[in-house]
Every structure is written in structure tokens, then in C-alpha cells.
């Protein structure tokens, strides 16, 4: 029998104009401490981004999102944060911040298949 994993997930948001508090969902982070699991994926929709923030530097946005993925994966050399444990990386990535890239509050759940749950949430919330 497959074991049940408790997980938390947060949605990555692009907030082109922080003062307006409008955002576009652009990615997902899913974490399970017990399974020592963290997974992050980004999806940028050019049409949505053009409607929200035509004056943004998209290369910088993409670089920032890629940095988040690198930290999540624990890629050495990408950031000192990437060398922290999985729970510490998740907490750092989901910390509240006033920037154009933010995360939702973490939401909990339980599943027997973390990858399938990630794929389902990504489809429902990001695509």
C-alpha cells in the first residue's frame, strides 16, 4: 500500500504593479517534508502578461522565476539558499514579500502520489 504524504503548495504570482495588487498565476511549488520532496514549475502565458504589464522587463522576470526553480531544486552555486534543506528552501521561497514575484499563502493537503497531485494542481491553477 502506498503511504499518504502530507504536502503544502503555493502558487507563484506575477504582480506587475504591486500597488494595484493584481496578479497572474505563473507557477507552482509543492513541498512534502516527510517525503523530502519539493517541485516547482513555471508557465508564462504571453497573452496574459501583455495584458497586465507591457512595460516589464520580461528577461528579468524570467531570470527571477528561473532562480526560484534553481533554489527549489537545490542547485549548488545558484544561491546560498539553494544549499538549505528542503523545508528551509520552501519556507524561504514562500515568505511574504512586496515584489513583482510573490507566492500565495501555503495550502495543505494529503496524497498518495505527489507528482500526480502536482500535475493536477498545476493544470487547475496555472494553465
Number of domains: 1
The total count of strands amounts to 5
Largest sheet: 5 strands, antiparallel
Share of helical residues: 25-40%
Which spans of ≥5 residues are poorly predicted at pLDDT below 50? none
Q: What multimeric state do the chains show?
A: single chain
Gap from first CA to last CA: 32 Å
Proportion of residues in β-strands: 25-35%
Name the shape in a single word: globular
- Give the helix tally: 4
How does this model look, in words?
This protein is of the alpha+beta class. It has one domain. Helix content is 34%, strand content 26%. The protein contains 4 helices and 5 strands, in the order E-E-E-H-H-H-E-E-H. The chain has helices spanning 46-52, 58-73, 86-93, 114-125; strands at residues 5-14, 24-32, 37-42, 101-103, 107-111. Strands 1, 2, 3, 4 and 5 form a 5-stranded antiparallel β-sheet that branches. Strand 2 (24-32) and strand 3 form a beta hairpin. The longest helix has 16 residues, at 58-73. The chain starts with a strand and ends with a helix. 20% of the residues are buried.
Amino acid at each position: 500500500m502506498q503511504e499518504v504524504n502530507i504536502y503544502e503548495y503555493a502558487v507563484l504570482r506575477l504582480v506587475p504593479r504591486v500597488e494595484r495588487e493584481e496578479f497572474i498565476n505563473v507557477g507552482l511549488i509543492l513541498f512534502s517534508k516527510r517525503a523530502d520532496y519539493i517541485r516547482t514549475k513555471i508557465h508564462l502565458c504571453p497573452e496574459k502578461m501583455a495584458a497586465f504589464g507591457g512595460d516589464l522587463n520580461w528577461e528579468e522576470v524570467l531570470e527571477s522565476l528561473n532562480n526560484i526553480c534553481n533554489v527549489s531544486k537545490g542547485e549548488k552555486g545558484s544561491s546560498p539558499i539553494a544549499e538549505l534543506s528542503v523545508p528551509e528552501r520552501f519556507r524561504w521561497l514562500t515568505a511574504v514579500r512586496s515584489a513583482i514575484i510573490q507566492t500565495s499563502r501555503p495550502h495543505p493537503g494529503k496524497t498518495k502520489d505527489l507528482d500526480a497531485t502536482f500535475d493536477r494542481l498545476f493544470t487547475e491553477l496555472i494553465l
